Amino acid sequence: MTTSKHTPLPWEYKHQVASGFDMGYRIRKQGGGYIMASCDNEHATEANAAYIVKAANTAHQLADALEAVLSLVQSKTRENEDVKTLLSQVFAGTPDQIIMIGDFITARDEAAAVLAEWRK
C-alpha cells in the first residue's frame, strides 16, 4: 500500500467566478496548481476556506512548538514524583496543587500522544 503525501505548503484560497457563475472559494497550492478543495455552500464559505488554509499552513509550526514545550516538560519531569516537586515549587503548596499535578500529568501524556500520531 502506498501512502501519498499532501500537496506541498503553503496553500491559499481564491474566490473563483467562471462564465459569470460564482464558484465559491478554491483551495490550492500557493501560486497556482490544481484545486484540492472547494468551499461553495451558502454558509461562511470564505471563512471555511480561510480556516482550512490557516490550519494547513500552521500545522508544522504548531507541532514544532508543542514538541519544544513537551521536550522541556519531559526533561524537567522524568517521573511523576518530579512533577510533584516541580509543581510544589511553582504553586508553593496551594490547595490547587493536587489537582494541578493530575492535570499536568494528563496534559503531558496527551500532548505526547497527539505528537506521536501527527508525526506518523
Write structural notes for this entry:
The protein has 120 residues and is of the alpha+beta class. 55% of the residues lie in helices and 18% in strands. It has a three-stranded antiparallel β-sheet with strand order 1-2-3. A hairpin with a 5-residue loop joins β2 and β3. α1 packs across α3 (97-118) and α2 (80-91) packs across α3 (97-118). The two termini are 15 Å apart.
Short recap of the structure:
The protein has 120 residues and is α+β, with helices and mostly antiparallel strands.
Largest sheet: 3 strands, antiparallel
Strand content: 15-25%
What's the total helix number?
3
The N- to C-terminal Cα distance equals 15 Å
Number of strands: 3
- Estimate percent helicity: 55-70%
* Order of strands, widest sheet: 1-2-3
Low-confidence stretches: none
Using the alpha-carbon principal axes, give the shape.
elongated
